[in-house]
Amino acid sequence: MAAEAIFASAHGGLALWLQMPSGTSLFALAPLLFIFAIFYFLLIMPQQRRQKKWQAMLAELKTGDKVVTSGGLRGTIMSLKDDSVTLRVPPDNLKLEVTRGSIVSVTTAEEGKTSS
Predict the structure, then answer these.
(1) What are the pLDDT tens digits along the chain (116 aa)?
(2) 9: phi > 0 → left, psi -120 to 50 → alpha, else beta; which?
(3) Beta bridge partners of 107
(4) How far apart are CA 75 and CA 36, in angstroms?
């Protein structure tokens, strides 16, 4: 009996929505459009900016740059390949080959001097 009441109210709501004038259906979509706009400006757009900035940083890598990887390794770039980078990691001058995508940030000489 409860299922029949739910079924009847669901179809009654659908019938009522279908009988609405076309202007009121726009008001029904307005909250969804508003929520989408909020998500776009607060989540999607900042992420796209961050992604472009990171891609530009990877494109500008050069030999001698000091970098930090996503695993926390700090090293100096010795050589560059298409999709990988060879790092020299102190204190034993260990050579490691990592992918370009694993580089999180580039530290410059000025930053290194101020933090010491």
Answers:
(1) 545 445 555 555 555 555 556 556 778 888 999 999 999 999 999 999 999 999 999 999 999 999 999 999 999 999 999 999 999 999 999 999 999 999 999 997 555 454 44
(2) alpha
(3) 66
(4) 42
Domain ranges of the chain: 30-60, 62-115
Q: Look up residue 21 and give its two tokens.
A: 């004038």
* Confidence (pTM): 0.65
Instruction: Return phi, psi of residue 62, to 5°.
Output: -145, 165
DSSP H or E stretch at residue 54: helix 45-59
Paired tokens of 71: 């695993």
Query: What is the CATH code of the structural domain delimited by 62-115?
Result: 2.30.30.60
Whether the Cβ atoms of residue 39 and residue 25 lie closer than 8 Å to each other: no
Q: Which residues, in sequence order, are bridge partners of residue 68?
A: 74, 105
Strand partners, 30: none
Residues 6+ apart with CB under 8 A from 56: none
Provide the 8-state DSSP code for 90: T
